[in-house]
Amino acid sequence: MSDDGQLLPLFPLHSVLVPGAALGLRVFEPRYLDLVRDCGRSGGTFGICLILDGEESGAPASPAAYGTEALIEDFDRDADGLLSLRVRGARRFRVHSTRVRDNGLVVAGIAWQDEDPRVRLLPEHALLAELLRRILEHAGAAVSGVPKARFDDAGWVGWRLAELLPLEHAQRQALLQEADPHRRLQQLLEFVS
């Protein structure tokens, strides 16, 4: 791990973003509009963390200890005139401290987590790769932007399943917190069985 003590603004949600996954956001609160403007000006990013206590709007929420960096891929105005963002999950991070700015934005002191090593899928997880292949074939164009398929890569298979399977937030959060791709796949195997 590196970059201890880096500050990252947070966008807490009742959702978990995993590396490589796409997520749509509607932005209307001034603190998050300011955040998006600042990211646009500086080329910066923000973090998405699962809300442990609180709501997505109003008073600042308490974020989970692990989150994912969000890269803005696209933006527009929706029919209601609200800012609509499409973000993609990048690096995982661990939150070690938080503070709340005057505008209510939560800023975290974070440590970036190591990227997954590129490791081959174990034979006991081959069923998961086949499940993912079928999900992607069935979904077709509905899962636009899925990174280039790597069905032999344990990390890639795990993150795509974590993104696409109908998991509970706590299950997806547990996967996000797991550093080992093989253990992550084992958890997924237990979830689907």
Automatic annotation (TrEMBL):
Annotated Pfam families: LON_substr_bdg (PF02190)
Cited Gene3D superfamilies: BPP1347 like domain, LON domain-like
Superkingdom, taxonomy of origin: Bacteria
InterPro entries assigned to the protein according to its UniProt record, in alphabetical order: Lon_prtase_N, Lon_prtase_N_sf, PUA-like_sf
Domain Lon N-terminal positions: 5-193
Coiled-coil portions: none
This protein's name: LON peptidase substrate-binding domain-containing protein
